[in-house]
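Board notes (copied after class):
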Amino acid sequence: MVLEVLNPRHYNITSMVTEVAPVDSIAILLLTGFLLLVWNYKNTSSIPGPGYFLGIGPLISYCRFLWMGIGSACNYYNKTYGEFVRVWIYGEETLIISKSSSVFHVMKHNHYTSRFGSKLGLQCIGMHEKGIIFNNNPVLWKAARTYFMKALSGPGLVRMVTVCADSITKHLDRLEEVRNELGYVDVLTLMRRIMLDTSNKLFLGIPLDERAIVVKIQGYFDAWQALLLKPDIFFKISWLCRKYEKSVKELKDEMEILVEKKRRRIFIAEKLEDAMDFATELILAEKRGDLTRENVNQCVLEMLIAAPDTMSVSVFFMLLLIAKHPQVEEAIMKEIQTVVGERDIRIDDIQTLKVVENFIYESMRYQPVVDLVMRKALEDDVIDGYPVKRGTNIILNIGRMHRLEFFPKPNEFTLENFAKNVPYRYFQPFGFGPRACAGKYIAMVMMKVTLVTLLRRFHVQTLQGQCVEKMQKKNDLSLHPDETSDLLGMIFIPRNSDKFLDH
């Protein structure tokens, strides 16, 4: 009997399959669909964005950031899904926002003062809980920021005018050092050396090899950009990150040597007041136990790389725009002649140079260098009706925001966009609120002095009609030109030359 029951021949298998299969198939399909729905439901959100779908959505969005770069990926998602988008980075929920009201909300509140990035990546470049740029520890960031704010305002702001103008004049007198065999000026290298020289004189005051350090700063920035969002497994494969570690070490070693020279100078100074500057304040804080030695070195490093890293590229883009828009150059030169005349530029000229200021603002709006801000929510919140959980990553796509709202001609380069006062909620090139750029005021002074001093001496032209619109760029942590191009050089024509007069 038992054998008969177990014998398949005892049954009509064909009839059984025919009778049972449709019911079983429907049940299985319904169960699978229900499980998928439950699985996805707990991970879905009212916020627009790609679907979760068993974790494939987060994997794809993270890979897109690694492949396209942060800036390009943000623009892709905002363009595809709208101005408030939910994606994932490292599997963590991340919001990409380009809506002015939402951006304003995030910037003004204290519970968005932290940033996010790979812990191992930030440790590699020295920014994990050190310095201020990507310090994710709000307490340590606030402690270090105090020294930056003091150095970048007050007397430092006033001194910037003379120090920067002198540096520009010195480098323009040695323009052959950055000219190629065809006589074209490497503007990016020129600006990076000027910015480094100016920053060193104001904040460190130790002689340095600016040519070598500018190269090392570029290597450091490349490493920073490459490592910021890398997965942890990347750092376990030594040959993958070896070149980045080498670039970081070269600049950090250089900074350690310079800061040590500063320590010795402070030690032998007869009057400490004569040596007081940003680096001195940090070293004294270290002696008091307020800052670690490593944090002091990192703060000095960040102060010296900030202008060569971003402001140099901003001025480069501005010169390209001036070359393309002669009517803008004419308006700028007319104002310079009216306000400054033939004398040296002074601190009281800065507020009067309104055309130059509007030009700088429009350049930064139309062709930004830093077009995104990365933050992390430190507590639960609601932004424009969307719930935001504590720990959510946030990227403010400011570059896109500047082309969406308020401006009368958002997709054109024209000073008409700043003919009227622009409410600061619609224009945030430096951010605002508790984690706004610490150097936003001194940066404006530096850019005005640079443009006035340079344009009084030279008329600039591009090569083969090169312009910012056609230029190949990389949009990752910041937006930079592709420096492998042969068309980045510019022609500097002295304004008192026959060639300029004929032009």
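Comment from the instructor: The first strand starts at residue 84 and ends at 89. The chain has 18 helices and ten strands.
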